Amino acid sequence: MKVSNRMFTIGLISSWYTSNIGVLLLNKYLLSNYGFKYPIFLTMCHMTACSLFSYVAIAWLKMVPMQTIRSRLQFFKIATLSLVFCVSVVFGNVSLRYLPVSFTQAVGATTPFFTAVFAYFMTFKREAWLTYLALLPVVTGVIFASGGEPSFHLFGFIICVAATAARALKSVLQGILLSSEGEKLNSMNLLLYMAPMAVVFLLPATLYMEENVVGITLALARDDVKIIWYLLFNSSLAYCVNLTNFLVTKHTSALTLQVLGNAKGAVAVVVSILIFRNPVSVTGMMGYSLTVLGVVLYSEAKKRSK
To answer: What residues form the membrane-spanning segments (predicted)?
Structure first.
């Protein structure tokens, strides 16, 4: 039984890694290499798939009990989270048009830094001095990685930093807004409500900022039908990321997920370099390594301070 459970957990982690890295690389391919320059529409496809699959998983397959929204205030809180979540995903996709995956992963590793900053200013929650000290190599590593990145693009970098900050803000806001016992939602139910709200936010932005994107996509499909399959597969992978994230947390722990996430970033960097052949400098790799080391030290310092 223990061997069976262990194999099941390894399978879950492998699925989480595969879907996580897969959607990241496919986003990069579509937005940069393939030339499908519509990151808002792509994000809307992801959120549409998450809406449909979440409903099937919860309402039909009963993977978790369905939790209901209990008040108008809770609805507005979830809508706020959804809007911030939209910004983080859209900005992350936009940055992939300008920067290699390896560099976006280096910037994304600074999420703990932004989380600590937002938590301090919004909740006045202070960590132990050792925890803050561990954030120094996180930031220093990104500075080194930026200076040593051959494909550095200032606008892409700013957007990538904004995406990382929005991701951190969402996690802090989630802790604040859905902190009462009656308002807490597990991640699958939260996605069930957030994803359709995200589609509502993204639809007007898509129509205004990416004019006639549906017509352009259909025209592309007439020349190359693979674009439809790319979008369908990519959107399905986006849901798999959320599903496997929930299952890995359920069958291991949040701390294990954090450690695995650090390793995932390193794996994504190596795989992206092998696939896209983007040039990488020694300084850039040293910077990224320093950032990952800082994140590991930060996790350890947080664990010891509890």
So the answer is: 7-26, 38-61, 73-91, 103-122, 129-146, 152-169, 190-207, 227-248, 255-276, 282-299
The answer to the question of residue 147 being in a domain is yes
Least-confidence region, from 67-71, 197-201, 270-274, 296-300: 296-300
What mean pLDDT do residues 112-125 have? 88
**Upper half-sphere CA count for residue 115 (Cβ side, 13 Å):** 21
| Domains held by the chain: number | 1
Token look-up 């919004």 returns: 122
DSSP letter at 63 equals S
Closest Cα partner for 14 from 276, 303, 251, 232?
A: 251
d(CA 102, CA 142): 12
User: pLDDT band for position 235 (50/70/90)?
Assistant: very high
Decide if 112 contacts 275 (C-beta within 8 A): no
For the cut 80, the answer to whether the pLDDT of residue 219 exceeds it is yes
Helix H or strand E segment including 213: helix 213-223
Residue 1 scores a pLDDT above 60: no
Q: Per the domain annotation, does 98 fall within a domain?
A: yes
Query: pLDDT-derived band of residue 296, with 50, 70 and 90 as boundaries?
Result: confident
Chain centre to alpha carbon of residue 303: 23
Q: CA 295: distance to chain centroid?
A: 16
Q: Quick check: is 17 in a domain?
A: no
- CA proximity to 99, closest of 57, 142, 55: 142
In which residue are the tokens 């069930």 written? Answer: 192
- On whether residue 7 sits in a domain, the answer given is no
Domain limits at 147? 33-64+79-305
